[in-house]
Write a structure and sequence with these properties.
Blueprint lengths: L12 E4 L11 H6 L2 E4 L6 H7 L5 E5 L5 H8 L3 E3 L7 H14 L5 H5 L2 H21 L2 H23 L8 H14 L2 H4 L9 H16 L14 H14 L11 H11 L4 H25 L9 H7 L3
Helix pairs in contact: 4-7, 6-7, 11-12, 13-14
Length: about 300
């Protein structure tokens, strides 16, 4: 038995703080009921703490169990409450690192960046993530997801410093949570008769989005700056959900091909990109085969291209 454990009031605890000095949820009832709550910095001396603990439950908030006050309380039988590990704790570390990089004494390059200067990296990282998905490369997928996350954290940190209408990563997350909850009433609001399967949920999502944003048109909110094939497919998707007759779609060959692919349930942008990637791989294979045969790919004639083309 630890010394004086039998005299230590129930509720006395040493609480290890979580990321950002957060108090674990499990410790909140102990904090509310405690006769005194101390941080490691303002805790009494171990001798005085030993006297105080006899008169009522004490909670010590600390990051280190080796602190003298923590050692004294644990020796007297105090409960130790640790942060619950779980998904999301690493995100707090990422936010802290981003804050450090943008703060005084941080990285000069990071401090100079703006929303405009970061745009190119956002586009590049999204395409690199897309490539990792298409390649089925799990290691690259994990890395590229982190790079895209960095862009979100970076832009949110820049926005936090804006003189007009600043917002933080917490505001971004809170708005996302509200959006997800609001657009899934069948999950969070006890049911939605309009949602019966994935297809009806997709339709319901667009309805709720249009109501939220008070959009006047079914094509409002479509990003017009996206690649042309993806743009055509998105416009077709939106207008078909709104009930536009198929014969009113543009009749040009390129738009028509994109429209037919989308109406058939395919992804024309992805399909064309896959075909383009296969073509690039075939070109490389033919060039490699030519080199192996002693032929310089830069000087190949049409018959030689056909000779070395993968069957």
């Amino acid at each position: 038995m630890t010394r004086a454990a039998e005299a230590t009031p129930t509720g006395t605890a040493v609480v290890l703080l979580g990321p950002g000095d957060s108090v674990p949820v499990a410790a909140l009832p102990l904090v509310r009921a405690a006769a005194a709550v101390y941080s490691a910095a303002d805790a009494p001396s171990p001798k005085r703490l030993a006297d105080e603990v006899l008169s009522g439950p004490i909670v010590l908030l600390t990051e280190d169990l080796d602190e003298p006050a923590a050692v004294e309380l644990v020796a007297r039988g105090a409960e130790v409450v640790r942060p619950k590990s779980g998904h999301g704790s690493g995100l707090l570390d990422a936010v802290a690192v981003m804050d450090r990089l943008r703060s005084p004494g941080g990285c000069p390059w990071d401090v100079e960046q703006t929303h405009d200067s970061l745009k190119q990296y956002l586009v590049e990282e999204c395409f690199e993530l897309l490539e990792a998905i298409e390649d089925g490369d799990r290691a690259a997928l994990r890395e590229e997801l982190g790079d895209v996350l960095l862009q979100v954290l970076f832009h949110a940190r820049v926005a936090q410093e804006a003189p007009d209408a600043p917002f933080s990563i917490d505001d971004v997350a809170a708005e996302l949570v509200a959006k997800l909850v609001g657009r899934h009433p069948h999950v969070f609001a006890g049911g939605d008769p309009a949602v019966r399967d994935a297809r009806t949920q997709e339709h319901r999502w667009e309805q709720l989005k249009q109501q939220e944003k008070k959009r006047a048109s079914s094509v409002d909110g479509v990003a017009m700056g996206q690649p042309a094939l993806a743009l055509a497919a998105k416009l077709v998707q939106r207008t078909r959900r709104a009930g536009l007759p198929a014969d009113l779609l543009p009749g040009s060959p390129l738009f028509g091909a994109a429209a037919r692919s989308k109406l058939a349930g395919d992804d024309p942008e992805g399909a064309l990109r896959a075909e383009a990637r296969k073509f690039a791989a075939d070109v490389r294979a033919a060039e490699d085969a030519a080199r192996s045969a002693g032929v310089d790919p830069a000087t190949m004639t049409e018959p030689e291209w056909r000779r070395f083309w993968p069957s």
